[in-house]
Specification:
Elements lengths: L3 H16 L3 E12 L4 E4 L6 E7 L2 E4 L6 E3 L4 E4 L5 E4 L7 E2 L6 E4 L2 E6 L10 E11 L4 H6 L4 E2 L9 H15 L4 H22 L8 H5 L2 H12 L7 H8 L3 H12 L3 H16 L7 H7 L5 H12 L3 H13 L1
Parallel strand pairs: 1-10, 2-8
Antiparallel strand pairs: 1-11, 2-7, 3-6, 3-11, 4-5, 4-7, 6-12, 9-10
Helix pairs in contact: 1-6, 3-4, 6-7, 7-8, 9-11
Length: about 325
C-alpha cells in the first residue's frame, strides 16, 4: 500500500536537500535619508536589489508594471536586477543611484543624505537599500522564473514571525543606535531569504522546471544525487537507472519537466558550483576542475566560459577583487 505521508516526506527532503545550495545575502547596504520631492533610479547593472522603508513612503516604479506604494515596514526584493525607480510622487525626475555621494559607516554599510535642511526631519523618507548577492547556485534555473519584484506583503499572514523582524528593522532605522548598521544588514538578509523561500513554498507561481521535478519522487532521486555528487562520472544510463526507467524515457521525461537535457543540466550545475568554489581561498582552477570530474583543465575552461560567460581565471580574479574591496 502506498504511504502518501512517507512519499510526501521524501519529496520534502529532496526539496530541502537541493535548496541547501541557496546563497542569498546582502553584499552592501546603504541607508538613504531623503527629503521629498525625490527620485532614485536603479539601473539594470546595479544587480539584484532589496528595499525597506523605515520612515515615510515611496513609489516603486518598474517597467511594464503598475506603480506600487511602499509604506513604513514594507520590503521588496528585485531578484534579477530589473531597472526601477523609487519616487516620492509620480513624474518626479529620478537621479541615478550611483551619482549620490555615500558616507561609510562601517564595512559594506553606507549612508546617503539628500535632505532639505530647512524641512522637519519627520517629513523625511528613510530607505534601507541593499545590493544583494542572489545566487541559488545549484538552483539557478529558479532565478529566471522569479517575478520582477517579490514583496514581503504576501508572507505576513503565513509567517507570523515576519512582523517582529520588520518591526525590529523599523526600530533600528529610527533610533540609529551603535551597531545598528550591522543589525540592519543581518535582518535584511533574513527578510530577503524568507521572501525567496515563501515564493518557493507557494509553488513558484506555478513555475515548471526544477521544483516540478523535485515533486516527482523518481526524478527527485536523480536530482538530489546530482547535487550531492556533481563531480561523479555521470552519464545518462546511470541517471536512468536511478529513476528506474529506460534511457529514452528518462531523457524525454527530464527534458520535458526541467527544460534542458540531463547532461546540459549537469554541466550548468557544475559550472555554477565552480563559480562559487573559485572564490574560496586556496582553490585553483585545476583543483576545481578535478573536484567536478574534469580530467582536462582545458575542457573545464571551455565549459565554464560557455555557461558563465568568462574564463575561470577571470572569474577568480573578480571574486578576489570583491573580497578585498
Amino acid at each position: 500500500m502506498l504511504d502518501r505521508n512517507a512519499e510526501a516526506t521524501k519529496i520534502g527532503d529532496a526539496v530541502s536537500e537541493v535548496l541547501l545550495g541557496m546563497r542569498l545575502r546582502g553584499a552592501r547596504y546603504w541607508r538613504l535619508r531623503l527629503s521629498p520631492p525625490f527620485g532614485v533610479n536603479f539601473r539594470v547593472d546595479d544587480g539584484p536589489r532589496f528595499h525597506f522603508i523605515g520612515q515615510g513612503e515611496a513609489l516603486l516604479m518598474l517597467p511594464d508594471s503598475a506603480p506600487r506604494v511602499m509604506k513604513v515596514g514594507d520590503a521588496v526584493l528585485i531578484p534579477r536586477g530589473h531597472p526601477h525607480q523609487l519616487l516620492s510622487a509620480p513624474r518626479i525626475a529620478a537621479r541615478d543611484f550611483g551619482r549620490f555621494t555615500p558616507e561609510t559607516l562601517c564595512r559594506a554599510f553606507y549612508e546617503i543624505q539628500a535632505c532639505d535642511a530647512a524641512s522637519c526631519r519627520t517629513k523625511d523618507t528613510t530607505i534601507l537599500t541593499g545590493a544583494m548577492e542572489l545566487d541559488l547556485v545549484t538552483m539557478h534555473p529558479l532565478v529566471a522564473q522569479m517575478p520582477h519584484a517579490m514583496s514581503v506583503g504576501s508572507l505576513l499572514e503565513s509567517q507570523s514571525g515576519m512582523h517582529g523582524i520588520l518591526a525590529a528593522m523599523e526600530t533600528e532605522m529610527a533610533q540609529d543606535r551603535p551597531g545598528s548598521a550591522g543589525v540592519l544588514a543581518r535582518l535584511a538578509d533574513v527578510v530577503a531569504a524568507l521572501i525567496v523561500r515563501g515564493w518557493i513554498e507557494c509553488g513558484c507561481d506555478q513555475a515548471s522546471g526544477v521544483i516540478t521535478a523535485l515533486r516527482d519522487p523518481r526524478l527527485a532521486r536523480v536530482l538530489v544525487e546530482l547535487h550531492k555528487e556533481p563531480g561523479r562520472n555521470w552519464d545518462v544510463p546511470m541517471m536512468a537507472d536511478l529513476m528506474g526507467v529506460s534511457r529514452s524515457v528518462f531523457s524525454e521525461r527530464f527534458a520535458e519537466i526541467v527544460g534542458v537535457s540531463p547532461l546540459r543540466y549537469l554541466t550548468d550545475l557544475r559550472m555554477r558550483i565552480a563559480a562559487q568554489w573559485l572564490g574560496q581561498e586556496g582553490s585553483s582552477v585545476a583543483d576545481v576542475a578535478f573536484r567536478l570530474g574534469y580530467g582536462s583543465q582545458a575542457a573545464f575552461t571551455r565549459a565554464f566560459k560557455r555557461v558563465i560567460g568568462v574564463s575561470p581565471g577571470a572569474r577568480r580574479r573578480e571574486l578576489t577583487a570583491e573580497t578585498k574591496s
